[in-house]
């Protein structure tokens, strides 16, 4: 039984996840939402706790890894089209890649808090997935190939990637929990949740989310051990065959969407053509400003001067409670190219360097845990999985929309596992071990 008092510091983080379950207004712009506002309050709450405790919260190594993105973002903010755009972009990047991850790292006190947050991801994914499947079954989803069948959850037609992101992250957490050493009943529930999330992920028709999830689950299975990888792979394959072949779950549309992945170079559809065109535009901006880029929020301003005539005016969106709307293409839908275009090599090296350091630390911590047969294997698989999913998905998407706050929390979970939990020798699993025992403070006494 979960005691609220025992998990009090992590409750503000749970509030952020809960707010993502609420429906957005029809026709919303898909920008920052209530969850982003609460995430700002979480950062403030964390800062108050640090000041009240009168201690240095982060070790120098942790501060460098988490603070590295500030360098490129600050330089790019000074080169923005306007001071206002620069400040908005600076705040968004600091929120997603620095402040919220640091707050998550500081507020988590042990593996129990980590698992609670992971289960909240799963619960959110199950809820959004259920809404998405209902949308497909009743024809009330977003428009796809002229039919209102695309599952988008409560995020609406203006944020078609929102539900796909939430469901994918929840599936990654469920797989990690199922592969851990928790009681058998919990692992069965986690496996059931993972299998239940496959249909809504498929019905999101998001090729990028499919690829990122497949890569991530494969990585998790391999990290968990070859025997588990073969067993779980067989189960997933069997369930996929039953869902798609046996029940005909969106067979024709899914087959067409899946086959489109293999012909993106030979016969790309308009969405792929637009993406290629925007990628080329982003590369052109970088060539003109190789070190510092065109400035934060500068891609839309410079897009038309670098894009070819193959670029369409925008993507058509409608359904899920919203009317028809032409949504402008304001980003290259590739996080790495967006950073390269707006922040140049300085920004890309700073951000990618921080992400690579987090990934290496997380994998090393997982490897040490496996070798020592210590507790927390599920936490390691979840942390590594969330990070791998984000870094893979960044090749097909970038930050934007209400679900972006989950990206920030994913980096925070990976930072907690790789930069703090890894510093503790394998000991019996004490979920409520304090943050000091994880090397977060320099004043902590030896234990």
Summarize the model shown.
By secondary structure, the chain is mostly helical. The chain has one domain (37-266, 328-425). It is built from 17 helices and 4 strands.
Write up this protein.
- This protein has 447 residues and is mainly alpha-helical.
- The chain has one domain (37-266, 328-425).
- Helices cover 64% and strands 4% of the residues.
- It has helices spanning 11-19, 34-53, 60-67, 69-78, 83-107, 111-138, 160-178, 184-196, 198-203, 207-224, 226-246, 251-262, 270-288, 299-306, 335-372, 377-393, 404-419, and strands at 142-144, 147-150, 315-319, 322-327.
- The protein has a two-stranded antiparallel ribbon with strand order 1-2.
- The radius of gyration is 21 Å and the shape is globular.
- It starts with 10 loop residues before the first helix and ends in a 28-residue tail after the last helix.
- The model is unreliable at 422-447 (pLDDT under 50).
């Amino acid at each position: 039984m979960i005691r609220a008092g025992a998990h009090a510091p992590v409750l503000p983080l749970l509030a952020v996840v809960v707010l993502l379950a609420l429906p957005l207004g029809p026709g919303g712009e898909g920008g920052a939402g209530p969850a982003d506002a609460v995430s700002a309050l979480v950062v403030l709450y964390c800062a108050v706790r640090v000041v009240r405790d009168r201690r240095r919260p982060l070790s120098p190594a942790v501060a460098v890894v988490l603070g590295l993105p500030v360098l490129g973002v600050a330089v790019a903010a000074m080169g923005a089209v306007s001071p206002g755009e620069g400040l908005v972009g600076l705040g968004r990047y600091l929120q997603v890649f620095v402040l919220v991850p640091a707050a998550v790292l500081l507020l988590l006190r042990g593996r129990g808090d980590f698992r609670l947050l992971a289960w909240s991801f799963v619960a959110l994914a199950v809820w959004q997935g259920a809404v998405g499947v209902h949308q497909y079954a009743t024809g009330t989803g977003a428009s796809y190939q002229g039919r209102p069948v695309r599952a988008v959850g409560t995020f609406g037609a203006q944020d078609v990637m929102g539900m796909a992101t939430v469901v994918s992250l929840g599936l990654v957490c469920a797989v990690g929990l199922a592969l851990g050493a928790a009681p058998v009943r919990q692992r069965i529930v986690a496996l059931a949740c993972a299998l239940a999330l496959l249909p809504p992920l498929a019905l999101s028709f998001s090729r990028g989310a499919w690829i990122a999830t497949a890569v991530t689950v494969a990585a998790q299975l391999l990290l968990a051990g070859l025997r588990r990888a073969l067993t779980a792979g067989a189960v997933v394959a069997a369930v996929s065959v039953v869902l798609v072949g046996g029940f005909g779950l969106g067979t024709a549309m899914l087959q067409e969407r899946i086959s489109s992945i293999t012909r993106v170079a030979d016969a790309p559809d308009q969405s792929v053509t637009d993406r290629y065109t925007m990628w080329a535009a982003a590369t052109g901006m970088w060539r003109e400003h190789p070190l510092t880029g065109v400035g934060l929020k500068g891609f839309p301003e410079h897009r038309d001067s670098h894009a070819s005539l193959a670029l369409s005016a925008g993507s058509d969106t409608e359904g899920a409670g919203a009317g028809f709307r032409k949504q402008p293409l304001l980003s290259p839908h590739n996080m790495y190219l967006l950073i390269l275009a707006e922040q140049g090599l300085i920004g890309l090296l700073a951000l990618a360097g921080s992400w690579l350091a987090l990934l290496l630390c997380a994998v090393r911590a997982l490897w040490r845990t496996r070798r020592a047969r210590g507790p927390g294997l599920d936490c390691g698989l979840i942390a590594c999985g969330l990070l791998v999913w984000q870094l893979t998905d960044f090749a097909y998407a970038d930050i934007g929309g209400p679900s972006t706050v989950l990206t920030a929390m994913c980096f925070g979970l990976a930072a907690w596992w790789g930069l703090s939990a890894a510093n503790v020798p394998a000991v019996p699993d004490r979920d409520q071990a304090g943050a000091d025992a994880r090397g977060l403070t320099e004043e902590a006494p030896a234990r």
